[in-house]
Amino acid sequence: MTVALHPNERAALRRRRAPDPWRLWREAAVIAAPITLVLAALIAATLAWSGAFALGGGTPPQTRTAGSPTQSSPGSGTTGTAALPAEPAGRLMPASAAATGVTPAAPFSLRSASALDRARATECLTAALYYEAVSEPDDGLRAVAQVVLNRVRHPAFPASVCGVVYQGVERGQGGCQFSFACDGATTRVPVRSGWARAARVAAAALGGYVYAPVGLATHYHTYAVTPAWNRTLVMTDVVGAHFFHRWKGFWGTAAAFHQRYAGSEPALGPAPRLATPVIALNHPVAVAPLTPAAIPATQVQPAFRDSGTPLKPQPAPAPAPESQILERWKNSGKPLR
Predict the structure, then answer these.
(1) Where are the membrane-spanning stretches (predicted)?
(2) Residue 234 pLDDT > 80
(3) Start-to-end CA span in the chain (Å)
(4) Whole-number mean pLDDT of the chain?
(5) Using CA atoms, how far apart are residues 250 and 99, in angstroms rounded to an integer?
(6) How distant is the alpha carbon of residue 133 from its chain centre?
(7) Cβ 150 vs Cβ 217: under 8 Å
């Protein structure tokens, strides 16, 4: 017996028998969805740990065991950290300590320094600005200068400009607070225009100019690195390629910056890096010997004035003539004893 199907039923039957080209894709998507979510979670966790997700790239942070001091040498593009002194007993936390605003630093002064110490401070600060931020705009230089001067006033750091800039050079490679002082950057001869620009910014900062946007920042690092200490600090500003930070709690407040300027600058410099000269000659150079004509006559005693002139060649002595004295008379001219 044949049963006639309604046209709609025949159409539905044809659709069920026809192959579905998207069925395999849908089944694959259902299977792959959980795997994709798990991989995405792992990648996001890895990026968040390394800091690359937050800063757009960088290196994994330095590991530090619990309870160890926050003192470590900086990597390229970052300042180092310093162990904090104990907080003064009985000192009350200022009400502004919990505020999220930025407190500008007080103007710096070199009034107590001698002319020699002023020159040393200017040279040390200029070197720090040049080798750390010469590629930055003027605000980038001003921000780095403010960090240096903030450190001079903080009891965790030396009380002089040169002492802050070259802190740790006595420990050699890996001990400097500012990476340029240990990584050999100072072996590059400065560009005259860049050095002059850094010197102008340094002189202004030492003369009392305050770069307020970074506030009381004592640390900075470039966007290319992620030091471990940046998680324990408070970011105050981003200027050019640098991120600036201050300490949390009392040591990051204006009341903590009470250290007095020492008034004298130590004669410090970068750590030695190269055993060979910076500029090597590709070919030997002839050196002319020193001649008497190159020495002033007043510096040579008259008895020796002509002693440095070349000797004229002398003819070889003639051979002695053969003796004509008879053998028995050869010793007759000797004196009597």
Answers:
(1) 24-49
(2) yes
(3) 174
(4) 73
(5) 12
(6) 10
(7) yes
